Amino acid sequence: MPPIPTARSRHPVLLWCLAFCGAMGVAGLIVHKFDLGWAGTLAIMLTATSMTIPIVRAAERSARFEGNLSPAMRRYNRRMVAGSLLYTLGLFLAVYAYKNWEPTGALLWGLALLPAAGALAMVAAMARLLIEEQDEYLRLKLAQSALFGTGALLVLATIWGFLEQFRLVPHVPAWAAIPVFVIAIGVSRCLSWARA
Would the keyword Transmembrane turn up in this protein's UniProt record (predicted)? Predict the structure, then answer.
């Protein structure tokens, strides 16, 4: 029988999640406020994005302690970290090239789609996890989280769309769907985790 989960075993994950949110906020402010050049901007964004690594490690330690770290989840975690780093690099390269090279034609199309490669890698990682996970209970929890994320995205997009239609809020680009979806999945997992 696995150990009973305790708040103490989950405490590091919460701290790393808060640190990640803080790092992303600070990185965004620094990049927005200061002209760091391409190297400084890339270093700041990669540093903030790399905060996902200690989150994953802390979550895996907690899951191992609770007895529910499966091989499929370990593979998923690595795929998601790789996808998020690919997304950050792709976004940086696309924005930098667009601003500095003034591309046109097929190159412009390729640059515009470059950040999507990381986002698609993350979606593929989610799909692979549902396929590869052998434990039916864990697969059910994953499906519930994905359903929560989808529902949250649909509700937020609908509400924001109506508010935007009446010019009460600013326009949000469509690419924001993936971050909202992933954040909603994270919230669902945290709520499920807190109830356990």
Answer: yes
